[in-house]
Design a protein that fits this description.
The chain has 259 residues and is of the alpha+beta class. Helix content is 36%, strand content 26%. The N and C termini lie far apart (38 Å).
């Protein structure tokens, strides 16, 4: 097993997200049978993921659909969503709430590059391999779990926002810059944590936000400038601002409904 996959699995177990009684992987025979139906061999790192978490991933990425039993159906559903937008060699491995999915290219590598497709857009690379994506998603889920368990640390409006944003699927992550502010959170690119967006729900109506997009100007923690600001915006407007600042290359997003 690759070191990155093994480390991520250990991190999930240590955080209590994949307890033994709620985690079940696939057998090698099951994976081989799937490959025979698909007509190609799956990449090594993805096979390792299936062998560990394929049938039941515990509390990892609840709300996203990536279980082994659904993989063949996901191929059909993802291509119906993408129409002509997904390459012929794409293998969709995760669907999020019916409007976006992640995929890699068959035969690309034993640790293939991950791409993202969302409704109304086109496929775009996340700039990371499958194992790197899994590691990033693992850390994102651990942070979200800590927020959820320790409600005294963050207001429910922030927990709800983080859940709706699906950070791991976007290549974004949460920073610890504003841990002391119960009604605020810092969100950043996974590969550039100092390029971030500060979001606050303090004295705002439900699902209304104040935000600042911050760009570093030097090496110090206070060396940054605010390049965009919103005083009282809804989720859609916040998401558009975050996409522009943290990764506009991922295109326009149709946000899921509030829970």
């Amino acid at each position: 097993m690759s070191a990155t996959i093994a480390s991520s699995l250990q991190r999930l177990r240590s955080a209590g997200l994949t307890p033994p009684d709620r985690t079940r992987g696939c057998s090698g025979e099951e994976v081989a049978h799937l490959e025979s139906k698909l007509g190609f061999r799956l990449p090594a790192t993805y096979r390792e993921f299936l062998l560990a978490l394929g049938h039941d991933p515990g509390s990892f990425m609840v709300g996203s659909d990536f279980s082994f039993d659904r993989l063949l159906d996901l191929q059909v559903e993802a291509r119906a969503l993408a129409r002509e937008g997904a390459p012929r060699t794409a293998f969709p491995f995760l669907m999020h709430q019916g409007y976006e999915f992640l995929f890699f290219m068959v035969g690309d590598d034993e640790d293939p590059q991950v791409h993202r497709f969302e409704e109304g857009g086109t496929g775009a690379p996340l700039g990371m391999t499958f194992s790197a994506w899994f590691a990033m998603a693992t850390e994102d889920e651990i942070r979200l779990s800590r927020l959820s368990r320790a409600s005294v640390q963050k207001d429910s409006s922030i927990i709800r926002l983080v859940e709706r944003l699906s950070l791991g699927a976007r290549g974004w992550t949460e920073t610890d810059t504003w841990d002391g502010d119960l009604c605020a959170v810092g969100l950043a690119r996974s590969d550039d944590p100092r390029r971030c967006v500060y979001v606050s729900t303090w004295k705002r109506a439900r699902d209304r936000y104040y935000y600042e997009c911050e760009t570093p100007t030097g090496p110090g923690a206070t060396d940054y400038e605010v390049t965009e600001r919103g005083e009282d915006v809804d989720f859609e407007m916040l998401l558009r601002a975050m996409e522009r600042h943290l990764g506009g290359e991922y295109g326009t997003t149709s946000a899921p409904p509030a829970q």
